């Protein structure tokens, strides 16, 4: 068993590394991120390379006995097409809803709801679950704005989901390890929506796979440094009368960077927060996680007040 895990993990890492390295010139020629007023980089950088770790990790994880992750592939493909052609937001959202529906149908969550709630509550729950899934996917996508932030965070989040749910997620962890070698500051490649939408979908999938409330709360708390930033920013912009659907640079991570923090400093901060959440769970369950969550919230508020560019 240990040998199989090591073999699959190393194979996933090596294939991902070689594909990223060898295909980088192709992406640089045909699929590039050109700097604009919202960018945190100054040069053209190939994007959409998240398609590589999405497909590699999905293939291996499926063979290891968790085929449900295949439902996340349409998110990666949709994101990849958006990286090339800039798809309408509505079409991307429809894909997210469809993926949410199929993930829900193949989850313990659906079994629980269908066996404990009436038909009316079932469809209300389905609606709420699908909307929540798209909110999570887009929250993760919004956070993909600094070198190594999302890739580094999801190396740990995938490990956390592995520990909590006992799923064969090693290939994703090691594919992301290969990717972050090219994505850490200064980034040589970007995952693009092909990667961030897939990872958001994976996070939503992990939540759907929870068969106990404790596991659900634990996984939500592990990813809280990411979605908390995103959701608080949306709420603040809404109450400020801003159009929350327009691009902006007002996430805490963006304003820390604008205030003079380096890419690696900001990304490391979020990664450390996630690491603390995982350690808290392993040592003392969700009680420790909740305490750490409030500490993260307080630290974020202090950074907001004293270190970040004004909202």
Secondary structure blueprint with pairings:
Blueprint: H1 2-30, E1 32-33, E2 45-46, H2 50-63, H3 73-85, H4 89-105, H5 108-116, H6 119-142, H7 149-165, H8 170-183, H9 192-208, H10 213-222, H11 224-239, H12 252-258, H13 263-306
Antiparallel strand pairs: 1-2
Keywords:
mainly alpha, two-stranded antiparallel sheet, 2 strands, globular
Give the biggest sheet: 2 strands, antiparallel
Please state the average pLDDT score. Answer: 94
The radius of gyration is 19 Å
Strand order of the largest sheet: 1-2
Q: Per DSSP, what share of the residues sits in E-state strands of 2 or more residues?
A: under 5%
Distance between the termini: 51 Å
The percent range for helix content is: over 70%
Class per helix and strand makeup: mainly alpha
Count of separate structural domains: 1
Strand/helix succession: HEEHHHHHHHHHHHH
Describe what you observe in this structure:
The protein is mostly helical and 311 residues long. The chain has one domain (2-220). 74% of the residues lie in helices and 1% in strands. The chain has 13 helices and 2 strands, in the order αββαααααααααααα. The chain has helices spanning 2-30, 50-63, 73-85, 89-105, 108-116, 119-142, 149-165, 170-183, 192-208, 213-222, 224-239, 252-258, 263-306; strands at residues 32-33, 45-46. It has a two-stranded antiparallel sheet with strand order 1-2. The longest helix has 44 residues, at 263-306. The chain is globular, with a radius of gyration of 19 Å. The N and C termini lie far apart (51 Å). 45% of the residues are buried.
């Amino acid at each position: 068993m240990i040998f199989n895990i090591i073999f699959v993990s190393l194979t996933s890492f090596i294939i991902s590394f070689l594909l990223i390295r060898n295909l980088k010139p192709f992406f640089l020629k045909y699929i590039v991120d050109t700097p604009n007023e919202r960018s945190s980089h100054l040069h053209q950088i190939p994007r959409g390379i998240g398609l590589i770790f999405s497909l590699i990790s999905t293939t291996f994880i499926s063979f290891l006995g968790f085929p449900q992750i295949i439902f996340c592939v349409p998110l990666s493909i949709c994101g990849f097409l958006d990286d090339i052609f800039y798809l309408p937001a509505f079409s991307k959202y429809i894909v997210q809803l469809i993926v949410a529906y199929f993930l829900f149908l193949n989850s313990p969550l659906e079994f629980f709801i269908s066996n404990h709630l009436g038909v009316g509550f079932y469809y209300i729950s389905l609606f709420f679950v699908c909307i929540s899934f798209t909110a999570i996917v887009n929250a993760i996508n919004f956070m993909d704005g600094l070198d190594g932030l999302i890739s580094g965070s999801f190396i740990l989040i995938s490990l956390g989901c592995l520990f909590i749910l006992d799923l064969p997620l090693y290939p994703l962890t090691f594919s992301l390890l290969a990717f972050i070698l090219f994505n850490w500051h200064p980034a040589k490649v970007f995952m693009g929506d092909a990667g961030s939408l897939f990872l958001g979908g994976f996070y939503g999938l992990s939540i759907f796979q929870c068969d106990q409330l404790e596991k659900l709360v634990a996984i939500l708390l592990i990813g809280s440094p990411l979605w908390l930033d995103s959701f608080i920013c949306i709420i603040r912009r809404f109450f400020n009368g801003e159009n929350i659907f327009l691009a902006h640079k007002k996430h805490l991570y963006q304003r820390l960077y604008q205030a003079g923090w380096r890419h690696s400093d900001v990304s490391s901060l979020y990664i450390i927060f996630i690491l603390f959440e995982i350690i808290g769970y392993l040592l003392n369950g969700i009680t420790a996680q909740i305490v750490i969550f409030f500490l993260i919230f307080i630290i974020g508020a202090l950074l907001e007040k004293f270190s970040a560019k004004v909202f």
